[in-house]
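ESCALATION

Customer reports they have been waiting on this structure for their group meeting. Please prioritize. Original submission:
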Amino acid sequence: MSHTPERPPKTSVSRLLEKKQAHDPITVVTAYDFPTARLAEEAGVDAILVGDSLAMVVLGQPNTLSLTMDEMLHHARAVSRGASRPLLIGDMPFMSYQADRGQAVRNAGRFLAEAGMDAVKLEGGRRMADTVRAIVDAGIPVQGHVGLLPQSEKAMGGLRVQGRTAAGARALLDDALALEDAGCFSIVIEGVPARLGTEITARLRIPTIGIGAGVDTDGQVLVLHDILGLCERSPRFVKRYADVGQTIGDALRAYRDDVAARRFPAAEHTYAMPDEEWNAFAADLDRPRPRRAFGARRG
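Update from on-call: job pushed to the front of the queue and completed.
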């Protein structure tokens, strides 16, 4: 009797906490559509972040600031159709939560109700603690984000490493502690010195997910397109695991050349028709047909 292997259980917020307590690293990757979400699930990642980085790596925008809720929900829905086992986290776009706390709760709820997400992520430290608390009180898990904040790049003077001074490091630690107190289930730490990432991780009870924050955070997240070599330029903290961009380019050039030389499609890429049917069709073409006046409607 054949036995179908059991699917791994759905990753939950509590499962990430268990992994932190067991010192078992957490793997997170971004995905923005059905096929990449399916591949990430098959690879066994713990969580998928539908990141607002899609503005740049998928939609070609210069930064994340122009991304809308509707665009985020569109991509989040595609991801939830492609993956079900990982924890699915929707990134709240710029101005979907900063201006009005009630709107923030409603927009966070849309990620769960309309897009199949399990949680949301938002940027900001102490100043966002009350908003986080309101969203969590509505029953929506929230992941925080401190350090380098892409949505605040104008205020920060660009995408720069944060926490390099004693005062800056203390502020980031206080931000992380405030988010933990507000109810975040985990916190992304981006673009900080490695020793600061280590210290914040040690002082928090909830998991930290690093991106450019050193090896000692509880987990790591990278943008899928950076991993695969689909971005022309990547930050220092990225490790490229494949050069899919070169592979895709080679394939497209080979396709172009085959079409130009009429090597494609070959016989194995075409469909056959029985000779007797073709002969009947050809004979039918020789029969005169009454001409129909231009514009006349069929009866």
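Sent to customer with the following note: The chain has twelve helices and eight strands.
Escalation resolved.
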